[in-house]
Amino acid sequence: MIILFRILFAVYLVSINLFSFLLVKTQKQQTVENREYIISDGKILFTGALGGGLGAYLALFIFKHKRDSISLMVLLPVFIALTIYLVVMSVVLDFGVN
Q1: Spatial distance between the Cα atoms of 78 and 23, rounded to a whole number of angstroms
Q2: Which pLDDT value is given to residue 75?
Q3: Do 45 and 80 contact (CB within 8 A), yes or no?
Q4: What angle do CA 56, 54, 63 make, to 5 degrees?
Q5: Contact present, 47 and 20 (Cβ < 8 Å)
Q6: SS3 assignment for 27-53
Q7: How far is CA 77 from the centre of its chain?
């Protein structure tokens, strides 16, 4: 049972990071094309809080986008640290399953 939780947790983290990476890429493309609707920074922060901070943070530097946004540059590393803490604690405590 623990192996199943670990696999599902890994799949979740990979998918949320990929989603947040693509979210930043889409925001960059919409900004370049001067579209009316642009994805808000709040959505990027929300996906970062859900565990996708690393994907969003890498995308900011890869696409050279929003690096002057203080909220993104401060909060995303905090979310990355929290995600790492949760991963380490889940491995140490085996997800709390006996």
Answers
A1: 19
A2: 94
A3: no
A4: 40
A5: yes
A6: HHHHHHCCCCCCCCHHHHHHHHHHHHH
A7: 10
Of residues 83, 77, 78, 46, the one with CA closest to residue 60: 77
Q: Give the tens place of pLDDT for each residue, 45-67.
A: 999 999 999 999 999 999 988 88
Tokens of 7: 């696999």
Alpha-carbon distance of 36 to 39, in angstroms, equals: 10
The band of 31, judged by pLDDT with boundaries at 50, 70 and 90, is confident
Given a cut of 90, whether residue 2 has pLDDT beyond it is no
- pLDDT at residue number 38: 81
